[in-house]
Amino acid sequence: IPFKTIDTSLSSLKNCRSLISSGMDIATKVAFDLVESFNDEEDVNSMEKVMLEYAEMDREVDNYIRAFEEMINQIKREKPENIPDIENLLKEKLTAIESKNSDSDLQRNEKYMYFVDQLKEMKKQFRHISDNGNDTIEQIDEDIAVTRSQMNFICPITQMEMRRPVRNKVCGHIYEEEAILEIIQSRKQKKKKVRCPKMGCSHVDVKGSDLVPDEALKRVIDSQNKQ
């Protein structure tokens, strides 16, 4: 296998991983739309199967990328006269990596975990709205008021209702995206860590990489505001 072919293959694999990631994002959005539109549970659950299939494809592509990278690193350490057969070396690396795979890997896929977590929240909140579908307007208004009091739509930083909520994967607290990122950037310039703005939280190192969009909460907020 010529080195040029290796570079091309590695680049193609990374593009595949990017396409798989985009596919998982689309599948997640479709599942959320189905819940919000009160579709059959079976339709919603079918999207979880799609996400697991994507997770499996993602793992397979990642295995190949790791095998290529390990192979390249080994070749770089070898003297020219000692370089082994590249094709066999790649197969060897790939087999070793795949032998460590397990079914639980798929459940640990970051996008799949996000999907499951957010879908659970979506089902819970929109089931509440659906269950009140036959109530009087007064009862619905009362339920909405209760829901508002139970759910924290207010950003701990701005003290205003959130428009683009993001959740901290470390401590689980939620903030307005723009507000928390502004604090992180400001403290970064001063080379200081950011304490979680939620009162009583002991987490003292909030990072931008720890923040994920809370699509479930955003949709609930949007839905409640349309009432």
UniProtKB/TrEMBL annotation:
The keyword Manganese does not apply. GO terms for molecular function: ligase activity; SUMO ligase activity; ubiquitin-protein transferase activity; zinc ion binding. Belongs to the NSE2 family. Keywords: Coiled coil, Ligase, Metal-binding, Nucleus, Transferase, Ubl conjugation pathway, Zinc, Zinc-finger. Residues 47-74 form a coiled coil. GO terms for biological process: double-strand break repair via homologous recombination; protein sumoylation; protein ubiquitination. This is E3 SUMO-protein ligase NSE2. Pfam families: zf-Nse. One of its GO terms (cellular component) is Smc5-Smc6 complex. Pathway: Protein modification; protein sumoylation. Residues 140-226 form the SP-RING-type domain. It is found in: Nucleus.
